[in-house]
Specification:
The protein has four helices and 16 strands. By secondary structure, the chain is an alpha+beta fold. It has two domains: 124 residues, NusG, N-terminal domain (Alpha-Beta Plaits); 45 residues. Strands 3, 4, 7, 8 and 11 form a five-stranded antiparallel sheet that branches. Strands 13-14-15-16 form a four-stranded antiparallel sheet, with no helix packed on it.
Length: 181
């Protein structure tokens, strides 16, 4: 006899259940990947959240961030009775599906992601000191000296969108974060 998810099964049933289990991609609410992972782990579901180490310059420290924001992987059998529990996990938007059935993510893809991320080096992330709506000044480049309104950071490497007042119209312009004061 073997215990699986708190239930006792024969070894043959356990082997059959293992054959039906696959990796599935889960789509979470924004910034809920870690929460969903913990809830599923606490319910006995194997998960994989691809992460990458980043250096946040503004805070001068390293932290882990999801490599695929709002996505993680779970290893389960969609025909089990626990499937409904997975679907209703707090913070989860949905299981990636096609035609009403969850889409299997091949084991090779998950293994490739694991290997690839283990070999990746730490990535620098510029964390913007500005908030949406802040009035900023452009310190370098052809627009040096002009004032603009900060809109959003668009890349981890520090590209940002600002709004310039050109002929009484706000025009979106992409700049480097380092060019702003």
């Amino acid at each position: 006899m073997v215990a699986v998810n708190g239930e006792v099964h024969s070894e043959e049933e356990s082997k059959k259940a293992q054959l039906r289990r696959h990796w599935y991609a889960l789509y979470t609410k924004p910034h809920k990947e870690y929460f969903v992972r913990e809830v599923l782990r606490n319910n006995g579901v194997e998960t994989y959240l691809p992460q990458i180490a980043v250096v946040v310059r503004r805070r001068d420290r390293r932290s882990m961030k999801p490599f695929l924001p709002q996505y993680l992987f779970a290893y389960f059998d969609p025909d089990e009775q626990h499937f409904a529990d997975i679907c209703w996990t707090p913070g989860l938007r949905r299981i990636v599906s096609a035609g009403g059935r969850p889409v299997v993510v091949p084991d090779e893809v998950v293994m490739y992601l694991r290997r690839r991320l283990e070999n990746m080096q730490t990535t620098d992330v510029l964390d913007s000191p500005f908030k949406k709506g802040d009035v900023i000044r452009i310190a370098r480049g052809s627009l040096e000296g002009l004032e603009a309104i900060f809109d959003q950071q668009i890349t981890p490497k520090g590209r940002v969108l600002v709004l310039l007042n050109v002929m009484s119209r706000l025009v979106k312009t992409e700049l480097d974060l380092e060019d702003l004061i």
